[in-house]
Amino acid sequence: MRDKIQDYAAVEAAAMKFVNSVAEGNSTYAKELFTEDAVLFGILDGVMERGSIERFYNNVDTVGAGDNFKARIDVLAVEETVAVVRVLEEGWGGRIDFTDFLLLKLDGEWRCVAKAYNQNSNTIKHM
User: How far is 95 from 93, CA to CA, in rounded Å?
Assistant: First the structure.
């Protein structure tokens, strides 16, 4: 059953913690969003990243977003106890565009359990 519009707004507000962390280069907000056992999956500059969300925190804390960084949040689905969010990022670290998919679940508040991403192929730096 589709949830009410106010539930979509709550999911979007939770996802803003992700965007704020990336934009400010500070994982503090994201640590409020992600569960301790959250996982990460994606390929960054041709290198597979998977495992603990700690990898994401490290990337956020060590690479500044850059002056031209932009992001957009799309709440794709909210179904009672689960939500899917797409975050479009442009210009992270001054050069990388990402599409992130966040899977959230409700446990009294919306928390993120997984982050999967795609790096746009025209922004891959070959090592």
Answer: 6
Q: How far apart (Å, rounded) are the C-alpha atoms in residues 52 and 50?
A: 7
Closest CA to 69 of 45, 88, 50, 53: 88
- Residue 62 φ/ψ, nearest 5 degrees: -110, -15
127 vs 33, more confident? 33
The string of DSSP letters for 37-78 reads EEEEEEEETTEEEEEETHHHHHHHHHS---TT-EEEEEEEEE
What's the pLDDT tens digit per position in 39-87? 999 998 989 999 999 999 999 999 988 889 999 999 999 988 899 999 9
pTM, 2 dp: 0.91
Q: Is 27 helix (H, G, I), strand (E, B) or coil?
A: coil
Contact at 8 Å (CB) between 2 and 82?
no
- Cβ contacts of residue 69 below 8 Å, gap of 6+? 22, 23, 89, 90, 91, 92
Instruction: Give the per-residue pLDDT at 80.
Output: 87
